[in-house]
Structure formats: C-alpha cells, structure tokens
C-alpha cells in the first residue's frame, strides 16, 4: 500500500536481501509482516526481533534520532520502549537507513486487551509524567527534535484551515466540522503554553501503546520523538474511551487551558489525517473520524 508520492516500495524479498547483506547471522530467521503505519513498514524477524523500514526520505530521519536517543532514554523509563540492535545502511535497492529492534511482546490497546479503562488512563498519565520529567541530556528543540506537535498551534493554522475545508467536502454532514473549527479557533486565542520544554513521544495513540495482562505495558514507535511544549502529548487521549480520558486528566491535574489546547491538537491531527489520507488509507481515515466524533461528544458534555 503506497501512501506518499515519494514512497519507496518495500516487500519481503527486499527485506531478506538487506538482511543477507548487512545482518547475515539473522538472514535465515523466519520473516513475516508485522504491520505498517503512515511512516514505516515492519516485519517480525524470528521470535525476538523487529525490522522497521521508513516509507520516505523524510521518515528516514526519524529512524536516525531514535537510534541516537532511545538507548539513552530507555534506562530512565519504567516501561519498555524499543531497543535498537542494528542500524541499517542505504543500498541501491533501498536508499534509506533502516533499523532492527528487540521485539516487545504485548497486544495492541483496545477493548479486547484492556480490562479497566480508568486504570489504563492513570497508568498512561504516569508514563507521560515520567517521560516528561526525564532529563533532556542536552537535547533542545532543534533539527529532528522540533516536531510540530511540540510547538505552537498558531503556526499550524493555515494548513489546518485547509484540512477543515477538505473535511467539509469529503464528509459532508457526517461530522459537525463547524463545531470542530470553532474549538480549533477558540484554542488559538488562548495564551501560549508556559510549561518548560520536555521530552515528547509525540504520537501516543492506541496502536503505539502495548497492553499485557489487561494493563499498559510498553510505549512503542518513537518516530515523532521531540522536545517541546507538552500540550499536544495529551491529544491522543481522545482515541481512548471516556473513563481513560477522565482518569488521565485527573492523574495529571491538567488545567482547562492545557486541556483545550490538547483538544485542538487532537482536532488538528484528525482533520489533517482525513485530508491527506482520504484516497489512500481508509483504515487511518476511520481512526481520525472516530477521534473527531469523540471530540465532539466530549465538547457537548463539557
């Protein structure tokens, strides 16, 4: 499935070729598809390894920062995070860097894998508090660590406005886009966040949260790792059921302004996803629709 104009196709024979050339000790291990997101294609290698290949040159940059920073962050975090064990180099057949990680056992977060959503929200809040409290180790909001979600909502207004217009065209009356735009614009006039910059995972949606025994177990896919203001980190709680969202809010003690900015970030990512992936990635568009419905329902209740 090709999602981007500059995407480099990946298949199992290509991965096997890369392994034979660069990781001969692993080249004959069983290899099977392990999912694909908007930025990477993944294959499970044997029982204990995961191969991640970026879809585009832009997303290849995210692999480099993960290879650099995850080994330093992992010892400081209580929950498992991806551990890189090989940095793949570009070849003629695949001209981008790629990587191999230790496999982390766990289930994708969802109604079949989480027992208590309130407890899950509190656990997620604890994981976020720990990450945000981790020493920056000299990292600053520059270069690949300046992901837009750690910055200002106002800097995104122009392209989010275009995305809202696309949603009106694509969705018709399915969603109340006028209310979504009102929530977005109300957040733009709030004071800019004053909290100090922290480490941000950047994309803590359910597919990047692994559950085990009904509880939060691991945080995966740090492709959006950055340094910045924490508001956007909270946006993905609208992908979780209400009890998780409420316990998350309570556990972190977030004020109303932070919550409204987080909701605006959730709106932004949802409408941008629908706009960009409308013709190419229906499953992701469905995730974005569900997020926007949750935002509208939550706004109606509060």
TrEMBL record:
It comes from the Bacteria. Signal peptide: none annotated. PANTHER family: AMINOGLYCOSIDE PHOSPHOTRANSFERASE-RELATED-RELATED (PTHR21310), BIFUNCTIONAL AAC_APH (PTHR21310:SF42). This is Aminoglycoside phosphotransferase family protein. InterPro entries: AGP_Transferase, Aminoglycoside_PTrfase, Kinase-like_dom_sf. CDD domains: APH_ChoK_like_1 (cd05155). Residues 32-265 form the Aminoglycoside phosphotransferase domain.
């Amino acid at each position: 499935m090709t999602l981007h104009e500059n995407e480099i196709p990946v298949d199992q024979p290509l991965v096997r070729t890369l392994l034979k050339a660069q990781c001969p000790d692993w080249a004959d291990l069983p290899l099977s598809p392990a999912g694909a997101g908007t930025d990477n294609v993944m294959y499970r290698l044997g029982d204990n390894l995961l191969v991640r290949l970026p879809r585009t040159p832009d997303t290849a940059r995210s692999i480099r920062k993960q290879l650099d920073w995850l080994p330093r962050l992992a010892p400081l975090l209580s929950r498992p995070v991806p551990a890189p064990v090989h940095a793949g180099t570009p070849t003629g057949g695949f001209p981008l860097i790629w990587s191999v990680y230790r496999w982390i056992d766990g289930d994708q977060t969802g109604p079949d894998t989480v027992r208590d959503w309130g407890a899950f929200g509190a656990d997620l809040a604890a994981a976020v508090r720990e990450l945000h409290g981790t020493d920056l180790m000299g990292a600053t909001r520059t270069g690949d660590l300046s992901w837009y979600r750690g910055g200002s909502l106002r800097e995104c207004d122009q392209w989010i406005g275009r995305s809202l217009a696309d949603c009106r065209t694509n969705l018709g009356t399915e969603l109340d886009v006028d209310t979504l735009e009102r929530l977005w614009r109300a957040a733009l006039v709030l004071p800019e966040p004053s909290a100090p910059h922290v480490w941000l995972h950047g994309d803590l949606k359910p597919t990047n949260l692994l559950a085990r025994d009904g509880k939060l177990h691991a945080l995966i896919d740090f492709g959006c790792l950055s340094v910045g203001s924490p508001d956007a980190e909270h946006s993905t709680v609208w992908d979780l059921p209400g009890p998780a969202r409420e316990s998350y809010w309570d556990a972190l003690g977030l004020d109303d302004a932070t919550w409204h900015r987080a909701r605006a970030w959730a709106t932004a990512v949802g409408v941008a996803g629908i706009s960009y992936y409308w013709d190419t990635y229906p499953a992701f568009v469905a995730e974005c629709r569900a997020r926007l419905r949750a935002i509208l329902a939550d706004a109606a209740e509060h």
